[in-house]
Design a protein that fits this description.
Number of strands: 7
CATH topology of the largest domain: YojJ-like (1
CATH architecture of the largest domain: 3-Layer(aba) Sandwich
Strand order of the largest sheet: 2-4-3-1-5-6-7
CATH class of the largest domain: Alpha Beta
Helix content: 40-55%
Structural class: alpha+beta
Distance between the termini: 70 Å
Shape: elongated
Amino acid sequence: MVDALSTWLGLLPKLTIASVVDILAVAFLLYQFILIVRGRRSAPVLVGVAILIGVYLIAAALRLDLLRTLLAALAPYTIFALIVVFQSELRRILARLGRRRAFGSNPVERRERNEDIVLAVTQLSLQKTGALLVVERNIGLRTFIESGVAVDARLSRDLVVCIFHKGGQLHDGAIIVQGDRIAAAACFLPLTTNPELSSQFGTRHRAAIGITEEADCLSIVVSEYGPISLAAYGVIEQDVKAERVREVLNSRHPSRELRASDVTTRATRSETVEAP
């Protein structure tokens, strides 16, 4: 028995430092993929693929040659199908791996910009005026900027409040901030495809989450009921104070700063504001 076990262990490849690094790298990529896919509509596709793999292994073990041959013939096409189905998830993985330090402008200008944003959203919250601001970081938002009205003006509290003034021509939609300037207003943003969030949030909050699923930006939402929310990398934190907004704006890694909120919060659940 001992000899057989020793023989079996001797057949296993030796564990080297390179092997450990290889295993950790694959585990990291799989973990990132699971984090991004979890809770999305494409997640059940993974279950279906796992079932097909299980059926193939059973067919091979029981020598069901016809079934095994059929599944083997479908395998190359399955790879391309998975790339199409998971294209958005793969894009987000590459974006996470490739993101660099955020907002490379002068630190003083950055603090001034952040302070103007904090003052603006605080005033909008007190006025119970709905608003959505998107702060661009490393990944460009040109596609979404082109969907709105070009502004290209230096960001200030008064300008932000004026844009979101009720009844104004640019009130609907989001403003996109590039550096210390407002690039565009009345921009249309993609809604989140996460089924766990889509049914619980109003359109404005779903758009705030959706844009952060496409890029590494930071979204700031002001509900028409007054509460302020923050979103980054598909995570939303609700009912935050001005100091919290300032803290996350000044952070270089907002996804690590945000604390996921309970999606059944009354204000956003009942909110049915206009689509940004």
